[in-house]
Amino acid sequence: MFDSPIFLPLIMSLVNTSNDLVVSKQASNPKGGGVLPFSFLSAVFSLLSAVVLMFIIPAGQTGQFFAQADLIYGSIMGLLSFGTYYFFYKSFSGSNTTVAVTIFRMNMVPGIILAILFTSEEITLKRSLAIIACVISIALFSSWNFREQKFSIHLVYSIIAMLMGALLNLFNKIGVRSGGTPSKMMLFRFLVVILVTAVVLTRNKLWTFSRSSIKFAAASGFLLVMSIYLFMTAVKTSDISVIQPITQLSITFVALISWLFYGEAMTAKKVLAILLAFSTVLLNI
C-alpha cells in the first residue's frame, strides 16, 4: 500500500482538505486583517516549517549545502507561487466566488498537458478517464452556470491564476527531477514569496496584522509545506497526470465535512460529484 502511486496523493488530499478548512475559517473571521497580510504571515510560517524540515529529513549527498537547482527552481516557484495566489485573490469580485474557484481548480488540466509536452509523461486511456471524471466532478461541485458568464477583468485574473498554477506544478516536478531537494527548494520559494509580498504590502501601506489570524497562518503555513513536500516526493516516481486528479479529492472531503458537521445540504449533484471524484482514485490504482 505504501508503495502505491496513489498513497502520497491521497495523504496530500487530506492535508489540502485541512488547509482549505483553515483558510475558510480565516476568511470568515471578521478580524482576519486582509488577504495579503495573511499571505505574508502564512509564508513566514511556511519558511520556518521548511527550515525545520530541511534539518530533520535526510538531504542525500548534498547534506545541508544548497545545490544550484535548489536556488534556481526554488526562486522560480516562489515567483509563480506569489503570482498564482495574487491573481487568484484578485479574481474575486464579491459575487463570483464559485467561478473563480472552479477555474482555479481546473489548473490540473493545463498542468497535465504541460507535463506531457515538456516531460516524459504519457497519457493512457485510464488516466484520460480519471482526468475527465475529475473535471466533471469539479464542474458539478461548482454549480456554475456557464451561459450566464460574461467577459470581465476578474475572469482574466482567474485564467491567469489557473495557468500560473499549472506552471507551478510543472516546475515542482522539473525541480525535483533536476536534482533539487524539496525542503531546500521550499525554503527559497517561501523566501521569495515573503520578499515580494513585503514589497507589495509596503507599496500599498497594508502592514496591518490581526492577532487572531496568527494561529490560522501558522496552521496554514505548516499544512502548505506538508502538501508541497508530499507533491514533490510523489513526482519523483509518479506522474502529474496521476497525482493531480487524486489531490482534487480535497473538494470531496470538504463537502462531506461541511455536510456532516456544518449542516450544508447534500444534493444529488454533489453525490454524483463525490462518486466521480472517488472514481479518479479507482482509475489510477
Description:
- The protein is mainly alpha-helical and 285 residues long.
- It has one domain (7-28, 36-284).
- Helix content is 75%, strand content 0%.
- The protein contains twelve helices and no strands.
- The chain has helices spanning 7-27, 35-56, 68-90, 97-105, 108-118, 125-142, 153-177, 182-203, 211-234, 240-247, 249-261, 268-284.
- Helix 1 packs across helix 10.
- The radius of gyration is 18 Å and the shape is globular.
- It starts with 6 loop residues before the first helix and ends with a helix.
Report how far the terminal alpha carbons are from each other.
10 Å
H/E order of the elements? HHHHHHHHHHHH
Shape: globular
Report mean pLDDT, rounded to a whole number. 84
List low-pLDDT spans.
none
What's the total count of β strands?
0
* Total tally of structural domains: 1
Which sheet architecture does the biggest sheet show? none
Secondary structure: helix percent: over 70%
Beta-strand residue fraction:
under 5%
Helix count, DSSP H or I runs of 4 or more residues: 12
Radius of gyration: 18 Å
Could you say which structural class the secondary elements and strand pairing correspond to?
mainly alpha
